[in-house]
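Task: fold both queries, return tokens.
Query 1:
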Amino acid sequence: MVKFYDPKDAADLARIEAMLQRAGIEYSLAREPENGIGPLQVQVAEEDLPSAEQLLRENEKA
């Protein structure tokens, strides 16, 4: 798994989780190893990273 997204708060995390679930992209949540924006980071499989990034770009345009 590779880092995909660092949500800023619980609402942002919920939005990203819903987006990935709708697309059928498996993900996991990991504790942020360093002080980041939020306490958890969203990770996806390395092979799913391009699809997840494209999905995020499309979602942010809407």
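Query 1 returned. Query 2:
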Amino acid sequence: MYTITKEVYFCYGHRLMNHPGKCRHLHGHSVKAAITIKQEHLNEQGMVCDFSDIKACVEDYINEHLDHNFLLHKNDPIIPYLTETQERFIALDQHPTAEVLSQMIYQHIKEQGFNVDQVTLWETASAHACYRED
């Protein structure tokens, strides 16, 4: 099995409403996401796929939905204020954790036809979450 990994970087804000620690407060992250694609055989160019194809696919999605956006649970009481002030945000069915974001990116890439192995999202330099379907 061959794999390649493309890293992308973006920023977002969020909060985890019911978190017992400081993550319950509004805050932001500059993150790295690593997208790993797998194939049993290389294509006619001798590649799993072109890195630029992964970049184009994931960057369009991230720019539209995640980068410089505020990610909130759909029941967050701050949503009416953000709507009123025309701030950019996305309301999610799940809490906006690194685990959930890695799954969102994974699902998008899979829907675009890539044979994605896993998506790893570093929320900080020392902490990351990974989503894969086994």
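Both queries returned. Flag for query 2: The mean pLDDT is 97.
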